[in-house]
Write a sequence for this structure.
């Protein structure tokens, strides 16, 4: 009898802890991690926490335990957020969206990882870049937002674009390094009306924006790359294998630095958007999941193209697929997403996001 009581008490405590963590993940979308940095980590684990609560719910129901109410109540809000990670698109919905009559633009957002995919697929950055450009040209987009674009000499970027993407105009900002230059590049076939840059303090991440006009409608496209974690998964695994405690300390410091910097960068971009005189699109690598302050802030006044027209898992990062969705295309609420794709092509540690939007 005492053993059963102990087991029952322990299982309830476990349920309360797991349920509490899931509830904290809901709170992570509104709490600024610059002030409470660890709250962002809980948001990252929204999916596994939801699945764990579901397993505990089924286990409690099977045992006919009244404690099933704990994971059940914790799971109820999850149904409002699961669509940020996975969508089920019907044939009727696709047909309805495709029967548009207005002007559309096709947008690609892609973190190309400096053309340095380290899996033996390519012998050089140039070979990887060739594959990326060929793939993008096959999509026939109107606007292309690239992050972590790399070139050996930034002075040659316009000639490179003319050679490989002859129909496109390029706007960019590159950070010079001892091993070339990298940064954000926005390509477009539309006439450019204005452009600008938002630099972030103590960071090589940034946002650039470009104003366009088509059929008399003006709009702005923000190409964002928010603070990265800068964590080497291979290095971390090697450190763990060698039982190097310093690896965990260094990884923790990098995560904390990234998590506390990112909200300030997001607020900078959002402040600029609020002053923007035309409709604003926001594209790029946010380095944050849909249960985050970053996503919550950036989607204010905008729709998420994946939620409007996506199908299947929305993950855009190759590691731990399908859990990590960190790349987005957001657009003004008065427009409509016609299509949305996340092709799983092997050219970067990210997957491209492609959407067609009716203006």
């Amino acid at each position: 009898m005492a053993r059963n009581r102990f087991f029952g008490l322990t299982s309830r405590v476990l349920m309360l802890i797991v349920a509490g963590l899931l509830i904290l993940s809901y709170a992570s979308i509104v709490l600024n991690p610059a002030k409470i940095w660890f709250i962002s980590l809980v948001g990252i684990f929204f999916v596994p926490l939801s699945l764990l609560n579901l397993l505990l719910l089924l286990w409690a129901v099977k045992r006919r335990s009244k404690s099933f109410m704990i994971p059940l109540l914790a799971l109820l809000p999850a149904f409002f957020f699961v669509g940020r990670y996975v969508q089920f698109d019907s044939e009727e919905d696709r047909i309805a969206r495709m029967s548009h009559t207005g002007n559309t633009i096709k947008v690609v957002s892609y973190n190309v990882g400096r053309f340095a995919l380290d899996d033996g697929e390519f012998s050089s950055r140039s070979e990887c870049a060739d594959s990326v450009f060929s793939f993008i040209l096959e999509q026939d987009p109107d606007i292309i937002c690239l992050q972590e674009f790399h070139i050996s000499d930034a002075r040659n970027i316009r000639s490179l674009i003319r050679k490989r993407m002859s129909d496109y105009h390029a706007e960019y900002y590159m950070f010079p390094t001892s091993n070339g230059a990298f940064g954000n590049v926005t390509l477009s076939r539309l006439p450019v009306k204005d452009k600008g840059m938002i630099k972030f303090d103590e960071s090589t991440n940034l946002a650039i924006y470009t104003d366009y006009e088509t059929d008399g409608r003006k709009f702005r496209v923000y190409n964002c790359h928010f603070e990265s974690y800068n964590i080497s998964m291979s290095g971390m695994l090697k450190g763990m294998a060698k039982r190097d405690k310093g690896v965990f300390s260094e990884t923790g410091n990098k995560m904390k630095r990234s998590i506390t910097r990112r909200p300030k960068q997001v607020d900078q971009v959002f402040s600029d958007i609020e002053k923007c005189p035309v409709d604003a699109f926001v594209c790029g690598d946010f380095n944050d999941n849909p249960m985050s302050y970053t996503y919550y802030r950036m989607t204010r006044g905008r729709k998420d193209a994946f939620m409007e027209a996506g199908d299947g898992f929305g993950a855009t990062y190759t590691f731990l697929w399908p859990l990590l969705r960190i790349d987005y295309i957001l657009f003004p609420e008065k427009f409509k997403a016609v299509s949305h794709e996340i092709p799983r092509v092997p050219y970067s540690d990210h997957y491209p996001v492609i959407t067609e939007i009716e203006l």
